[in-house]
Amino acid sequence: MFYRPADGHGLPHNPFNAIVTPRPIGWISTRDAQGRDNIAPYSFFNAVAYVPPQVMFASTGVKDDVDGTKDSIANIRETGVFCVNVVEYAAADAMNKSSATLPHGTDEFAHAGIEKAECGEIACARVGNAPAAFECRMTQIVQIEGAANFVCFGEVIGVHIRDDCLAEGRYDVTRYVPLSRLGYRDYTAVRDVFEIIRPDD
């Protein structure tokens, strides 16, 4: 089949997210100017550069109690920092609970029973038992086409790695099993890993 998104797809459910899979989940923690913590999962997330290390996530949609966006972007605008926490399969339920639409200022760490720890380089909370976490300084927030679509870029200025996720000097995803987003309400767990050597290596 072929369709133009502007004309609609004619299917029972939008296939776009199901095609762009699997997607890593950035569990973004922020703190507002009043010191209130927030955490929410974003599957429009990825690493975008090596030197300096940089990441991005995109926020789509709007909350009624936040001006033109959601809590994460609103908080980052106020403070200029955020933390990206890696989601493991064992944290699937907590991650899902933290995606609930709650009143602005609600602490999703407490709501979802997430272990909280303080970041080292930025004034922000992080998931204390996450396999890894990136402390980030926001470099820019870009509004893209569509209502309330924002892409937030950040430079990674601190990295936390859980000790049991290291094996012989390498970060080993099979030690914790990353959770990834598919389309619709589907997720997958990364358990199988194989290596491909590039022609120039």
Automatic annotation (TrEMBL):
Xref: InterPro entries: Flavin_Rdtase-like_dom (IPR002563), Split_barrel_FMN-bd (IPR012349)
Signal peptide limits: none
Pfam families, alphabetized: Flavin_Reduct
SUPFAM superfamilies: FMN-binding split barrel
Any GO molecular function: FMN binding
Domain Flavin reductase like: start-end pairs: 18-173
Protein name stated in the entry: Flavin reductase (DIM6/NTAB) family NADH-FMN oxidoreductase RutF
